[in-house]
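Sequence only, no structure available. Ideas?
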Amino acid sequence: MFENLQNSHGEILDCSYAAANVTRRPPRVVEGQAELVVIGHGVTGNKDREWAVMLASVLNAAGFATLRFSFSGNGDSQGRFEDSCPSKEVADLNAVLNACENWHVTFVGHSMGAAVGVICASQNARIKRLISLAGMVHTGNFAQRKFGDLQAGVDCMWEKPECPLSQTFLDDMRQIDTVLPLTKTITVPWLLVHGTHDDVVPIQESLQIAEQALPNSQLTTLTGSDHVFSDDAMHGMALSVLNWLDS
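Reply:
I predicted one. Tokens follow.
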């Protein structure tokens, strides 16, 4: 259904679509449109991260169709990893949303993917609900904390040879700096899920969004959970998402 989905550069984005499991319950429908949960990953990730696969499985069993995809330059998507940055990923997500015009879309973004989701939701009305998992808010601060001591074009992110640090990434992260001001433009229902032991994106970033007192947002904290919702926290994250969608 989403084969050969291309971004604005003509690069094919690797996608995995899964229909709702109709043997358990009918597919979810809102305002005459079937519900689709689109799932995007974070820095150096891809659509097949364990948390993404589990989340999709839980949602499929509950009647939701899902679409996991890798941003360009990541996973099996076309493009150079060195060109990956939030602004390009916003364009990737817009390309995905353009292919979902007949669906009622919820976007789930993890880490930097959550920041991409905030930017896109502030611009694209096709996102009807927004979910931020361990969501990054201050992109400039993140780039400095995690990669400020590394040299672009020489070093790699987290010592992964397949993930070279690029000046394009650093410049874009610093130019965006923070998505916090955009929170006031988000009018769709918004769930934030964050672990208390996240040492990659501090939970304080989600707390800052919650402190904006947006009437359409909800923050769920997972005690003891790390950035990728390891072990039992992964199922807790998936249930938090499902319960919120059901509500």
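Residues 15-246 form a domain with the Rossmann fold fold (CATH 3.40.50.1820).
Hope that gets you unstuck.
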